[in-house]
Amino acid sequence: MQGETISASDLERFGYCPLSWWLSLQTEVTSDVLEQGEVQHEIVSNNLSNILEEEKKAQSWDRLILIFSTVATVLGLLGLSLLGFVDAAVVSAILAVLAIIWIVAAIFLLFRSASIKDKKKSASYEQIVVGFAIVAMIIALNAVTVMQFNPDVALLMEVGALVLLIVASFAMYRSLASSLRAKRKREEVAIEGDIRYVGRQTSRLLRSERFGLTGRPDYILERGGEIIPVEVKSGRKPKGPLFSHVLQVAAYCLLLEEEGNKVSHGILRYGDMEHEVEFDAEMRSLLLGKLKEMRRLKVTEDVHRNHHRPGKCHSCSRRDMCPERLE
Predict the structure, then answer these.
(1) Kind plus residue range of the DSSP H or E element containing 164
(2) What CATH number does residue 288 fall under?
């Protein structure tokens, strides 16, 4: 590890003004602007969490639709067979083939889940595998017993099939409702891509031991197989991305790259404005240079203001304690 660990937030403060960053290490400062920013970040986190929750509900209902409709079909065929409307031998053969198809599908999904790095997504696949295996077992067992004629059992199977189809229809309604709510929320907050991470205080902290860097982006998207960190800034909307914010997003890109992800850029959002931050060799070199400079200044303690902009000084939350503030 290269010296003391530095957070992406510290890097952002350093990019804004080295002296402001240095003062933040000495005393914790609160202000209306900082509190407003925390509230805004909490709103973003809640919106994204709601989207994930609704999409997860839709996936769960989709699995139930698949299982219930399949079992209902099997019961319906068996019931008709036992009532004498369909030749039992034909139904038995059909069920045997269906059992083989479901087992093959389960094996495929099992291998698929083993190759997925995302643990949550892998667990989802494994649940589907279990469902497939159970259905295959039910089909196979009924294929053996289909020749046993029992009118009462046949009627019971038909009633069971009807009930399961009703449940499947209800599950479809709930799935569509959850999908619609998730879609509306995505449009409201302008989110495109799969949400892979939501930055809360309880969320996993990204960490690089090699570069001594940590960070927790507001959220992470996946688009076209590429991972994209996103940082949302409240307050005024600048004409272009601010240098300090660019550094912060670059830090998130480096952290994700260190985890083995393909990262070519990050995103800065100011309200409804969105800016791409390219993460290339030049940006990587700039970022590492700033980390090196921060560690050097922590040793020398020779830290000074790096600008001559009174407006910037007036908006700084550490202005009151700054010995080099501009009037």
Answers:
(1) helix 151-189
(2) 3.90.320.10
Residue 160: in which H helix or E strand, if any?
Answer: helix 151-189
Distances (CA, A) of 150 to 71, 74, 80, 95: 19, 16, 11, 18
DSSP letter (8 states) at residue 220: E
Q: Which residues, 6+ apart, have CB-to-CB distance to 270 below 8 Å?
A: 233, 236, 237, 238
d(CA 142, CA 95): 8
Look up the domain containing 65 and give its range: 51-189
Residue 113 belongs to what H/E stretch?
helix 88-114
Nearest to 105 by CA among 65, 142, 60, 67: 67
Is residue 72 in a domain?
A: yes
Report the amino acid identity of residue 55: E
Does the residue 42 lie in any domain?
Answer: no
CA distance 136 to 122: 21
Question: pLDDT tens digits for 215-234?
Answer: 999 999 998 888 999 999 88
Domain finish residue from 189, 208, 234 = 189
Instruction: Place 1 in a pLDDT band, splitting at 50, 70 and 90.
Output: very low
Can you tell me the distance from the alpha carbon of 55 to that of 50, in angstroms, rounded to the nearest whole number? 9
Rounded-to-10 torsion of CA 28, 32, 38, 43: 170
pTM for this structure?
0.69
Domain boundary among 189, 213, 235: 189
235 closest CA partner among 212, 268, 204: 268
178 and 283 in a single domain? The answer is: no
